[in-house]
Amino acid sequence: MQPPLIHVAAAAIIRPDGQFLLASRPADKPYAGYWEFPGGKIEAGESAHQALVRELEEELGIHITQATPWITRTHEYATATVVLNFFRVTAWEGQPHPREGQTLSWQDADNITVAPLLPANSPIIKALSLPTLMGITQAQSDPHGFLSKLDSALANGLKLIQIREKDMPAAELQAFTREVTLRTHAQHAYTIVNSDIALALATGADGVQLTSSQLAQLDTRPDLLWVGASCHNADELSRAAQLGCDYALLSPVLPTASHPGAPTLGWDEFTRLSQQRSLAIFALGGLTPADLQTAQQHGAHGIALLRGAWQ
Fold first, then answer.
1. Using CA atoms, how far apart are residues 263 and 254, in angstroms rounded to an integer?
2. What was the pLDDT predicted at 258?
3. What is the span of the domain harbouring residue 72?
4. Residue 208 has what pLDDT?
5. Are residues 54 and 159 in the same domain?
6. One domain for residues 294 and 188
């Protein structure tokens, strides 16, 4: 007999300092004592957002004022298959307090101090440590000048840098990647290398950004902390999830200066493509830092910028 399929709305309730709320399951529920994200079953006739609002009022006594769709994970337990529709909750009324016998704890994604966690939640906790703004380098004409822009961006809080220098000579690119990685690590930020897995491993970078052609060819996930993929359609997003990528860059969302007149997704198509995905999705193409909230309202984890990250 096939186990039942249960749809759940779950909340990553995030404070301004970046900490998020976990709750222990009460003694009268399966997996008692395990820690999980607050939320609960979506009832018949409810949307995921409606269920989220209801569950957080019932469980924690808070009323959501800002929640954006995020990641959807499916997990098979012995007794049921659970589809977890996660939202990022960043504003609410009231103070969370246990109303159903659970214990609450604010946690940092890089230093979890409670255990055990429900198995389905580990990828979500990793995703919470992924910054929401990615800067993509544009240094080939002036690498030394770019490093000063990098230092300024890091000082202003940029935590995720993708090195994409397709025209830089190999030896120069390796030296540049090492230098960028040293500077990002000094500011507790991450460096991602575009397409070159060997270069990422050799320079101590944190991850690799796979091209769509690499995505089609690889059979196993590269052994790096972060693995992302460049995607443009539903099939590529599905392949990225199948390979075990942590995130995808979905583009182009809006018109860009580098490709004037080229077809774009627009926000409606971006939303359609990003729904029900098990990995974090960045919006890319024609965006500025001011577009972050709009992107998240349409299901994005964050945004990736070229020019806008360094101005």
1. 9
2. 77
3. 5-128
4. 99
5. no
6. yes
